[in-house]
Write a structure and sequence with these properties.
It is built from 17 helices and 20 strands. With 443 residues, it is of the alpha+beta class. It has 3 domains: 220 residues, FAD/NAD(P)-binding domain, CATH 3.50.50.60; 108 residues, 2-Layer Sandwich (D-Amino Acid Oxidase, Chain A, domain 2), CATH 3.30.9.90; 52 residues, no CATH class. The longest helix is centred in the C-terminal third of the chain and has 21 residues.
């Protein structure tokens, strides 16, 4: 009798839990190892889980006390300069349809809830006594035999399996250790996300953002480059709080901030913007956090996503994309975790966990929306991180807004004249035309 696990999953985030749920449903024996006291204990991020894939893992989740904060019913994209804000605003009844297309979550709560659903799936699986989630355990090393991954070492003990799914997050030390990720990733391909959770009275929050029930609001920000640092901002409404923060390029911070300014100073500058001051009035900061994120540049992805006995999923594979209309990472983690687990199940049926069989995972990813979108929007990733997008473009857009929406007791220019005057005040027509063509091709 084979006493090995069919699979060991390293990491109890969305990718790892999605893989575990899939394995439980497919009747495989697995061990999920999480270094936190519970799934979500070490996760400080919060944002939007896009898409409807959660309904495949937990059907009718909205009827099962799902730990999401709100569903997205109202979206806004805002261009900021130093004093003004110009927004594209969209609200639609179609966002209210179930399953919801976007869920605002706080990961510490959401991951713990999803882990409880995995526990239920284990109980209902053919191996309720042989599969488990083990928390508060740090994986120290990956076991290798003749180049094949055969398990993990944790707490001074060895645990063996036919396969291992690495869902360890963006600080993918184990992925690097076995040579599937370069040892050093340049700072211009990585960013730091800094976030505050700001609490409000629920009625105040709902009145301020015109929300009812579990409906929620999301706002992405382009511009307002404090100290010349490249980055963007976000605001998401939770049940009785806001998640507010910035994603700032590491290389840009190093080059522009120096020793005179820290990342929380940039966040303070962001919060002091006139638009944000109005939205944040009366709130109480109850949490501050910062963590590393990928910028979505495919050049930082691991060289291989599958090897003999091993697969890499979620942020460990640097699966993230900011295409300008949304920051996608959690949905990529969920999808990749499911695809990795499906590949393991197929390998179990074939009795072959070699790279030849497990490479099917990469083929599944390539056929999925994840890699199709990451390839399709690489131009958008580079475009959104160009200097003009956080300096010139917001300046021109807001200058035009001031001219267009200001009414005085004087002759008013025609709209094309206003636009040309705004362009000439901050750039020139040729530069803006080139930028428009580049943006059109990228987005």
């Amino acid at each position: 009798m084979d006493d090995k696990f069919d699979c060991i999953i390293v990491g109890g985030g969305i990718a790892g839990l999605s893989a575990a749920m899939t394995l439980a449903r497919r009747g495989l024996k697995f061990l999920l190892v999480e270094r936190g006291e519970f799934s979500g204990a070490k996760n400080v991020s919060g944002g939007v889980l896009w898409g409807t894939r959660l309904n495949d893992l937990v059907p009718d989740y909205w009827e099962q006390d799902a730990a999401f904060e709100r569903f997205v019913s109202h979206r806004r994209l805002t261009f900021l300069d130093g004093t003004s804000a110009f927004s594209l605003d969209f609200k639609s009844a179609h966002f209210n349809e179930k399953p919801y297309s976007g869920l605002i979550v706080l990961r510490s709560k959401f991951d713990a809830w999803l882990a409880s659903k995995v526990e239920e799936a284990i109980t209902e699986s053919p191996h309720p006594d042989d599969s488990l989630i083990a928390t508060n355990i740090l994986v120290e090393d990956i076991l290798l035999k003749d180049g094949k991954v055969t398990g993990i070492r944790a707490g001074g003990e060895e645990f063996h399996a036919h396969s291992v799914i690495l869902a360890e997050g963006v600080n993918n030390l184990l992925t690097r250790k076995i040579g599937m990720q370069t040892a050093y990733v340049p700072g211009d391909h990585m960013a730091t996300g800094v976030k505050e959770v700001i609490r409000f009275d629920r009625k105040v929050l709902e009145d301020r953002f015109q929300l009812s029930g579990d409906a929620g609001f999301t706002n992405e920000f382009i511009g307002f480059a404090s100290g010349g640092v490249e980055g963007g901002g976000f605001l998401y409404t939770n049940q009785d709080s806001l998640s507010l923060g910035l994603v700032l390029n590491m290389k840009s911070m190093r080059e522009n901030l120096g020793d005179s300014k820290k990342i929380y100073d940039v966040l303070s500058d962001f919060k002091s913007h006139p638009m944000l001051q109005d939205l944040l009035k009366g709130g109480e900061v109850v949490e501050y956090s910062a963590h590393v994120v990928s910028t979505g540049d495919m050049r930082v992805m691991p060289k291989r996503l599958a090897g003999d006995g091993v697969l890499i999923a979620g942020e460990a594979a640097n699966l993230l994309l900011n295409s300008g209309k949304a920051i996608q990472g959690m949905d990529y983690a969920m999808e990749s975790g499911i695809l990795a687990a499906e590949t393991v199940a197929e390998a179990k049926e074939a009795g072959d966990f070699s790279v030849k069989t497990l490479n099917e995972y990469r083929l599944k990813l390539d056929a999925s929306y994840i890699m199709k979108d990451m390839r399709r929007f690489q131009g958008a990733v580079n475009f959104l991180h160009s200097k003009e997008m956080f300096t010139t473009v917001p300046d021109v857009v807001n200058d035009f807004g001031r001219r267009f929406f200001t009414v005085t007791n004087a002759p008013t220019d025609k709209t094309p004249t206003m636009l040309m005057n705004a362009v000439n005040a901050h750039s020139n027509l040729w530069t803006m035309l080139k930028l428009a063509v580049k943006g059109g091709r990228s987005l």
